Each structure stands twice: as C-alpha cells, then as structure tokens.
Amino acid sequence: MIQFLLNQELRSEHALDPNLTVLNYLREHVGKSGTKEGCASGDCGACTVVVGELQTDDAGREHIRYRSLNSCLTFVSSLHGKQLISVEDLKHKGELHSVQKAMVECHGSQCGFCTPGFVMSLFALQKNSDAPDHAKAHEALAGNLCRCTGYRPILAAAEQSCCGKQPDQFDAREADTIARLKAIAPTDIGELNSGDKRCLVPLTVADLADLYDAYPQARLLAGGTDLALEVTQFHRTLPVMIYVGNVAEMKRIETFEDRVEIGAATALSDCYEALNAEYPDFGELLHRFASLQIRNQGTLGGNIGNASPIGDSPPLLIALGAQVVLCKGETRRTLNLEDYFIDYKVTARQESEFIEKIIVPRASAEQLFRAYKVSKRLDDDISAVCAAFNLRVENGVITDARMAFGGMAAIPKRAAHCEAALIGAPFNNAVVERACAALAQDFTPLSDFRASKEYRLLSAQNLLRKYFIELQTPHIETRVTAYV
C-alpha cells in the first residue's frame, strides 16, 4: 500500500496500476480534470502539479517544500508519503487564489488550455520566492508553453502574485499538514500491485539491493522523466518497477575535503548548489537542463544510468574525473564514469547492480574547467553537442587535459587524440588548432534532425577555440552558450 495526501484528503492505494501517471490518476480516478495533457512528454507544462514534501532545515525546523512537477511523467507510486496539489485545490471558500487572480487581472489567459499549468508553476514560484525576481520567474515558467496569449502578461502575473504575497490556506494549515505527513511517513516497503504489474517502494539501500536481487528484471524508477515515456509515448507496459525516490541514503549530498558525494536519487535541482559552488559552469548548465519541472524530478543518477549519448551531465562529470559507486547486494565497486559507458545504451552495470552515488572531485585552483551546450533553444532543449574542457597549465605548458563530449558518438566520450595533442605542449593558438584537427580522429558523429555530422564536428572544434579565447580574454567569457 502507498499513502499520500490529495490536498488534505488522505488517499490509501494498493491495487492501482503502477503504470498509472499522476495526470491520469487525477483525471480518471478522482475526477479532477483541470490538469491537462498537452504533450505527454514533459515539454509543454500543461500538466504541471505541485508536490509537497516534509523537510527539515539546518536549524531543525520542519517545513513543507513545494515543487512543480510534470504529472504526465510522474507515476502514482512516487507520491508515497507526500502531498499532491492540483489546480482545483487553489480556490478556497469561493475565492480564487492570488496567483489565479493575477492571471485574470493581468489578462494571462486566452484559450485556457495551458493556464492550469501556468497557475501551478506560479503557485510553486510564489511559495519559494520572497520577492519578485525576473530571472526566477523566467526559470519557473520556462517549462510552460503558451500558444496564444504570449508571455508578457503571464510574467506580469508572476510579478503581481509574488510581490507582497499574503498568507493563503496552505500557510494556515501548514502545522496540520506537517502533522499529517509525519503520520503517513513510510516506515516499511510500500507497494502498488494490480495483479499483473507491481511497483515496490524501498526505504533503504539494503532493501533496494534485496529487491533488485529478487527482481533483476525490474526497471528502476527515480525521477521517471525518461522511463515514463515508454508508457506515455511508446505505450509499453512496465511489469515490475522499483521506485528509489524514498531511499534517503541515495538523496544525500556530502562534501569532503577532496570530493563531493551525491546520492544517485538526488534531484537535479538539489544538485545545483553543491555543483555550482565548485564549478560555476556546471551550475550554468543545470539552469539549461530541460525545465524546472524536470529538474525537480529527474536525478543525477538517472541522467547517468539512462546512458543517453546526449545526456547533459555525463560529459561534464567525465571531464572532471567523476566516479560512480555501484551496489549489488552487499558488494560495492567504484568505477571511473568514463568506463561506465560501453556502447549505445550499454553500460558496465551488472545484473541487479545499481548506481548508489556519484563522486565528484572538488575544484582546485589549477583547473581550467569550462562547459558549453549547443542547442536550438536556450531553455528546455536537448543538446546537439555538449562539451566540457578541463586543463591544467603550469608555466604556460599543458600538463593534463580531459576533454569530453556528448552528441558526438554513441556514448559520452573523452577525446583521446585531442588530449594527446595538448598534453606537454604550450597553450597557444597553434596547439589548439592542432587539437581541433585531432577531434576528427576522435569522433565520427551522426547526422539527425538536431544537427548534421559536419555541423557537430565543426561545433566541437569551435567550442575548443572558444574555450581557448575565453581563457586568454576572460572579460568576454559567455559560458554555456547556445548556438542556433
């Protein structure tokens, strides 16, 4: 059984289809049809809902953290122990919520199909903002598409709803909601079981290891932003899933003298602070990683485990010399991330083995790390090419080079010939040109609807040139630039 709050209503579910998304649960099982399906792939934001989770801050104070999610990519099992809020829950005692009023008063809606998603993103923004901030508003709404109104009035609604905000019914009920969430906090393995399909929800790494050993055919569900597409886009059935999002040990971020350890189930939005503190370019890239709804849900371990050749984080992690800790039963092994990827969607992971955490070396003054993403849109788009460069230069001579690319091969991969052309040479334009030529030996990229092979190779070479120019003239640095 799993339990969660539907606004303030306790829901206990056991026999639901584990392949059921929160979107379809709301619309088909509880009659809340305000949440819309626009794309069923997490791109349009029409299905946005807000999930509240019990959190404890550094001072030991308990509070509820509200986050926007794409309900079309969220399986119901991930709600275990949480609070689900949909657009119907905002109106209170016959009065519209302040974010709904702002949308009306700023004329932020025309056809209205996208409006519930915008309202929920604005609600989450309001809950997480103390003052209007143009950049935060853009970030909060980047995952919501409007095809008729235009964004100016919606941004005006964001400013109005966040400026001088007043307490609402959720603030008034916070203490009671905290108590109710504590009362349903999971204490044992949860399960949804429809007879022919099941999803298991462990709470510890040990339980996860045991379950995965017992069900090696199971699909591991973290954020589900990619896995859910198999159901919503390809109409496949997932007979057995194991949801790892309630394993607290895999959601920790720990900083040591020489490294940062990030649990594999840590949401990308939670990774931002730690990674940005060490590597600002990593932080900049995370701002451009899909949308806020996806970053609130997708995990760093999932982005690696998915083994996509165009995943944004692996090239950066490889260039930084990151490692993954793989767990199987009581056995653990540590593997350099570059050795984890073998071929397209093929990894070094063994049966019943899973990524427990990612180890990222801390930054040093000698490192010259930069990252770049080439995509057709600045926000919410997939890379055509993603490049990460990490050099050490002493007395004008390159002593170490780690150059990694995504979108250039069947796997995220280092550029061995390019690195060899750099190491031991002076860091000058002639050497960089020689290294650019060597990239043609490292990669034979494919052409697809995102970019041609010629474009990809030339872009990779130009990014290396850009890296060199920015290091020579840091005042023109632009970081993680999009190219159209």
Could you please describe the fold and organization of this structure?
- It is built from 18 helices and 20 strands.
- With 484 residues, the chain is of the alpha+beta class.
- It has 3 domains: 164 residues, DNA polymerase, domain 1; 113 residues, 2-Layer Sandwich (Uridine Diphospho-n-acetylenolpyruvylglucosamine Reductase, domain 3), CATH 3.30.465; 104 residues, CO dehydrogenase flavoprotein, C-terminal domain (Enolase-like, domain 1, 2-Layer Sandwich).
- The strands form 5 sheets. Strands 2-1-5-3-4 form a 5-stranded mixed sheet.
- A hairpin with a 2-residue loop joins strand 12 and strand 13.
- Helix 3 crosses helix 4, helix 10 runs antiparallel to helix 11 and helix 17 runs antiparallel to helix 18.
- The relative contact order is 0.09.
- This is Xanthine dehydrogenase small subunit.
- Keywords: FAD, Flavoprotein, Iron, Metal-binding, Oxidoreductase.
The overall average pLDDT, rounded, is 95
Domain count: the total is 3
Shape: globular
**Biggest sheet statistics:** 5 strands, mixed
Classify the helix fraction into a percent range: 25-40%
Low-confidence spans: none
- Let me know the number of strands: 20
The CATH topology of the largest domain is given as DNA polymerase, domain 1
The appropriate CATH architecture of the largest domain is Orthogonal Bundle
Gyration radius, rounded: 23 Å
Based on secondary structure, the structural category is alpha+beta
CATH superfamily of the largest domain: [2Fe-2S]-binding domain
**What is the CATH class of the largest domain?**
Mainly Alpha
In spatial order, strands of the major sheet run: 2-1-5-3-4
Number of helices: 18
Strand content: 15-25%
Distance between the termini: 49 Å
Pfam family, one: Fer2
GO molecular function: 2 iron, 2 sulfur cluster binding; FAD binding; iron ion binding; xanthine dehydrogenase activity
Keywords: FAD, Flavoprotein, Iron, Metal-binding, Oxidoreductase
Domain 2Fe-2S ferredoxin-type: 1-90
